[in-house]
Amino acid sequence: MSVTRTRYAPSPTGDPHVGNIRSALFAWLFARSTGGVFAVRIEDTDQERRIPGSEERILDSLRWLGIEWDEGPDIGGPYGPYVQSQRLEGYGLAAEKLVELDAAYYCYCTPERLDAIRAAQQKRNVPTGYDRRCRNLSAEERAQEEAENGEHRVVRFKTPLSGRTTFTDVIRGDVSWENRLIDDFVILKSDGFPTYHLANVVDDVAMEITHVIRGDEWMSSAPRHAMIYEAFGYTPPVFAHLPLILGADRTKLSKRHGSVSLLDYRDEGFLPEAMLNFLALLGWSLDDKTTQMTRDELIAGFSLDRVSASPAMFDREKLEWLNGVYIREMVPETFVELARPYLDNGLPPGILRPLDDGLARQAAMLTQDRARVLSEMPELCDFFFTDDVSFPPTLIWAGMGDKAMKRMADADEDLWRVPLPDDAAVVHEWLNSAANAIEKIEPWNHESIETRLRALVEELGTSGRKLFGAVRVATTGRTAAPPLFVTLEAIGRERSAARTRAAATALLDTQLARS
Ligand code: GLU
Q1: Which atom of ligand 1 is nearest to the CA of 213?
Q2: Cross-strand pairs, 164
Q3: 6, 196, 211: which to mutate for ligand 1, most atoms within 8 A of CB?
Q4: In the annotation, is 97 catalytic?
Q5: Alpha helices of 422-463 — where are they, by DSSP H?
Q6: Backbone angles phi, psi at 225, to 5 degrees
Q7: Which pLDDT tens digit goes with each residue over 75-113?
Q8: What is the spatial distance between Cα 227 and Cα 200, in angstroms, rounded to a whole number?
Q9: Which of 44, 123, 402, 444 has a 20 to 30 A CA-CA distance from 246?
Q10: 208, 6 Cβ separation under 8 angstroms
């Protein structure tokens, strides 16, 4: 069997979109799973749409995910990608060859004339397209046009006027287009640059691509490509057009749905392994149940026949969940390292910097199993670093398990406006006693903190759930935080005691203010 060869052929026209990188991933997975070759080709022949820096961002996206390419121009180090603007000569020769084969012709129509045709077609409400005026010029007419309008000369493909163009897409099945619906499209522009259609086919032939795996939006270009292959007498590659990606509202994924740039996800703190896993499931599945797969498992399991023809849903919730799964599986030390810059940059400006290394380490370790995205880290553990843990006093009752308060807190209702419950004086006493006890705990570690606070539960005749819940809110400002005793250990004795006492005082103050 001959070796499979795939490619990813992005245009450097902006930030690489997740859908675009999904195409790269599927082409790469297919090459890897079949022991084939994967190449990257920058399609930059539309120089007007070129956005500086975008090529680098495309390659960075691939590198971040570990999608490595196997060949390309030798730039003295790892291979560069193929770049179309550096291969212009071949496209000009190919266009001439098509003219020789009577499959293409020179067209001299001026932009003004083309505009006028379009305007007239629009006025008559008929599909727009070139009227084929130059398709059958005599030799004399051509010579005259060459002299008068030579600078406007383009090469157009001579689309058959009747019949159908048919090709097979491994995902969609047989696809057939009526030729009369396709106009004589430009293949070489007046500046000598090829259009996408010509350059794409010429390069796929030159690179001996066996499988063209790309997004669904290129489906309508495929008949043109099939025609060019046929005109040259080349066997077309296998086409695989990947299903559309939809946002949560079932419309095509776009900026309206939030970020679509792959590198934004990197910067937000998604892990490359999780992103790779997630992207692979956008239109492909191993079976009906497997969601978590490593790179090697993806390579071993990938096949084009399990790519679905129906649209895939980009479910951010699922991505966050999956990322959380990968975060929990990380070696704590690695997680600490990854989380650190997010803490350094994301914690409020008032916090003393540089952060205390030991505290940052503990904070990260204690919140590792709660984080879904690294950028959540500052919010998840700010209380380790700041004593400003202000919260509505009634949140303490939510922390103690009071159902009504808990419901309101979960619904994000304004608890500041809720009056203190009748047992506020009792809870005030508990917190004061807890502060007194905490101040004296020796040695300061989670074991002795636990022993002392459990004893206090007995002394006060309350339950652990209530007392620990109250102390948790008092010291962290939230009802859900890492396990209490280790959290207090990390926060420190004096700070834990002071916060607990401050919460007790706040209860009294609030009560006094109301009475
Ligand atoms: N240059 C096209 C793009 O930007 C390539 C489409 C294809 O893979 O043929 O996606």
Answers
A1: 8
A2: 178
A3: 196
A4: no
A5: 424-440, 446-460
A6: -65, -40
A7: 887 888 999 999 999 999 999 999 999 999 999 999 999
A8: 13
A9: 44
A10: no
| 197 CA to centre of own chain | 28
* Ligand 1 pocket: which of 11, 15, 44 to mutate (most atoms within 8 A of CB): 11
pLDDT in tens, 112-158: 999 999 999 999 999 899 999 999 999 999 999 999 999 999 999 99
Catalytic position from the list 158, 252, 255, 406: 255
Nearest C-alpha to atom 5 of ligand 1 is from which residue? 9
Tell me the CA end-to-end span of the chain in Å, nearest whole number.
Answer: 88
For the record, the structure tokens of 92 come out as 């000009």
Residue 475 host element (H or E) = helix 464-476
Find, among 399, 351, 381, the residue nearest to 503 by Cα.
Answer: 399
What residue's CA is closest to ligand 1, atom 10? 10
Q: What is the pTM of this model?
A: 0.92
Half-sphere exposure for 150 (CA within 13 Å, toward CB): 5
Cα separation, 157 vs 201, whole angstroms: 13
Q: Ligand 1, residue 204: give the atom nearest the CA.
A: 9
